[in-house]
Amino acid sequence: MVDTASMAHQHEDTEAPHCCAPGTVERQRSAIPAEQLLVRPTHAAPSGDVETASLSGGTFAMGGTDPDANPHDGEGPVRQVTLSPFRLDATTVTNARYAEFVDATGYRTETEEWGWSFVFASFLPAALRRASDRPEQTPWWCAVNGAYWREPEGPGSSIDDRLDHPVVHVSWADAVAYCAWAGGRLPTEAEWEYAARGGLDQARYPWGEELTPGGEHRCNIWQGTFPVRNTTEDGFRGTAPVRSFPANGLGLYEVSGNVWEWTADWWGTDHGAQPRTNPTGPKTGTARVMRGGSYLCHASYCNRYRVAARTHNDPDSAGGNLGFRCAYDA
Question: Domains plus CATH for the chain?
Answer without folding.
Answer: 50-330 (3.90.1580.10)
